[in-house]
Amino acid sequence: MANLIRSAPLVKFAAAAPVVQVDAAQIFRHVGVDPQCMVAADLFVPQDCLTNVLDATQRRTGFAGVGLLVGASWRMSDFGPLALLLEHLPTLRHAFGEFERYRHLRSQTITIRIQEAGVLAVIQMDVRSDRGKAPGTAVELTVASLMALLHWFLGQGWHPREVRFAHSAPSDLTLHRRVFGCNVEFGCDFDGVVVHTADLDHPNPFGDVNLARYAREFLDLQPAGTRAPTTLAVRRSLELLLPQGRCAVEQVALQMGTTARTLQRRLSEEGTDFSALLNDCRSALARRYLADARYPVGQVATLLGFSDASAFTRWFGARFGASPRQWRSEAGK
């Protein structure tokens, strides 16, 4: 089944198309995208519709920054109904939690993780397509659109410490520097934004706990068929919280805006439990990180929420029948 996204980025593309001197309707017809996506922001379409539109435009114009140009035009209202909640949350940290909780209302292709290291934090974005990792144009659009959320909480004059991309650098970085207002690095091991850790907890001057509650009630009234299963929502929350050492059921429930008891009940209705999901999530992430030699075992332990490497090694041995180093050695053969 194709990964779905809201059609909002396609609407934004149609508005930006004249800047790069292309006919949006012609591009849509060329790649087979419903022309309604030029004007209707809340349709759900395959992610590859956006990828194909961006790719076709880049081929036709030779302009590598089309995704960045579209993302730079993003506003809070472009997050759709989810903006009603995001605008009234107390901090950016709360906003990222709700951003993941209601992921099914925005995109199935973007996962956000926050990794904190002293005074700095990395807002890491994993952008996928039906073909695997999304191309650089789509990633740049996604990271640039994130700036609308960051500026809402931190002010229009705020700039990140650094922006990093995994893809290679274009020949001209003028637009990147203008959009982000900071150093932009390419060829990195992740896509994301480096900020001060304190930024995550900076109070939102527009926060209103009552309006946030009303917004949640509205979002929760969306048809059940569009909601992410609790199992999937827990996995996504764990991926966000594990690097912070927060993996207790109470912490995950708080992240999802519910209670531990309610969360356990919903998981039981789906035929699983929190402990099993935690172990499954850690297992998948452990294999991913250990398969990449850039991650020392101690860092993998931290990313999986273990207090120290020895605790991780004991858990891994019980799970896989080998130590992390042994597993890495065998996997590399």
TrEMBL record:
Name of the protein in question: AraC family transcriptional regulator
Pfam family name, one: HTH_18
GO cellular component, one term: cytosol
Domain HTH araC/xylS-type residue range list: 232-330
PANTHER family the record matches: HTH-TYPE TRANSCRIPTIONAL REGULATOR GADX
Keyword flag Transcription regulation: yes
Domain of life: Bacteria
GO MF term list: DNA-binding transcription factor activity; transcription cis-regulatory region binding
Keywords: DNA-binding, Transcription, Transcription regulation
Cross-referenced Gene3D superfamilies: Homeodomain-like
Claim: Ligase is one of the keywords in the record: no
InterPro entries per the UniProt record, alphabetical: AraC-type_N, Homeodomain-like_sf, HTH_AraC
